[in-house]
């Protein structure tokens, strides 16, 4: 059997999408088989499949499911319109990560050539993601080396940006694993990432799997860790990056960037080109997904707040470019600010 880290987080198998159910981790490694567009949308909205690149790839495979359902007996106008309607529903499942609409549109562009062409495009994207991860990580390792010559490093990360969030090693977490592989990591502080605990449940699971030293901290401990000299560098991913380099990422990223700037700690974003949205300049124009109240007002299914309590529950925030030391993609470094130089 291959090592867990060699297995892709999602794949196509006999007209279904097979993916690890991220809601069940770290307790259970349960696979889901998604065979309809509704299955795909539910998996994306409930975060069974999550992370910007992964939801894009699941969305593209979802367009293939729709194409087989509506166009396998020939491409008719009605069939095409049904697939386009499904594609719109998939894209709308989560509005902030631009990778979702990008990948769905790319798969949909092949519809005129039939369902096999749509599926082929989706699987090409999965293969491309592996190459993109590798290149991006190689660039990011160099950037960390330039900004943090000390070793071994104490790194801090937020949310989950590893193999669960992509088709390969990941973005920010892929970089951390590559640094650890070359003996450059003393410890990773993992923000638990309230309210859905992607850091505590998923990043910790990936780091444990890779035998990298880590500790989990509550999100509000990150600034204290920086003030106590426990953090040499912050490395995070992105869901959408505007033309001028403002970055939408998991809620809490902005506070981390402010704290890092205050302490003169490099703040590095690692994300593929498919996370860039050149149609937007200003991060304030990014649509931020609002999630249900009960993600905040309850814990493990048990209410923690008085009855009727409402929540402010944005899934993401926007970090302005001025707070970011470097944005790294498969093309290299895109943006460096003077803040932490
Ligand atoms: O709500 P999530 O878990 O999908 O949020 C994910 C993030 O914010 C990640 O940092 C981002 O998608 C990059 S994943 C390589």
Automatic annotation (TrEMBL):
Catalytic site: 239
Pathway this chain belongs to: Amino-acid biosynthesis; L-methionine biosynthesis via salvage pathway; L-methionine from S-methyl-5-thio-alpha-D-ribose 1-phosphate: step 1/6
EC number from the UniProt entry: 5.3.1.23
Keywords carried by this UniProt record: Amino-acid biosynthesis, Isomerase, Methionine biosynthesis
Coiled coil: none
The protein, known as: Methylthioribose-1-phosphate isomerase
Residues the record marks as site: Transition state stabilizer: 159
Keyword Glycoprotein: no
Family to which the UniProt record says this protein belongs: Belongs to the EIF-2B alpha/beta/delta subunits family. MtnA subfamily.
One Pfam family per UniProt: IF-2B
EC top class, as a word: isomerase
Family matches, as Gene3D superfamilies: translation initiation factor eif-2b, domain 1, Translation initiation factor eif-2b, domain 2
Keyword field contains Amino-acid biosynthesis: yes
Annotated positions binding substrate: 50-52, 94, 198, 249-250
Substrates-to-products reaction catalysed: 5-(methylsulfanyl)-alpha-D-ribose 1-phosphate = 5-(methylsulfanyl)-D-ribulose 1-phosphate
Reported function: Catalyzes the interconversion of methylthioribose-1-phosphate (MTR-1-P) into methylthioribulose-1-phosphate (MTRu-1-P).
GO molecular function terms listed in the Swiss-Prot or TrEMBL record: S-methyl-5-thioribose-1-phosphate isomerase activity
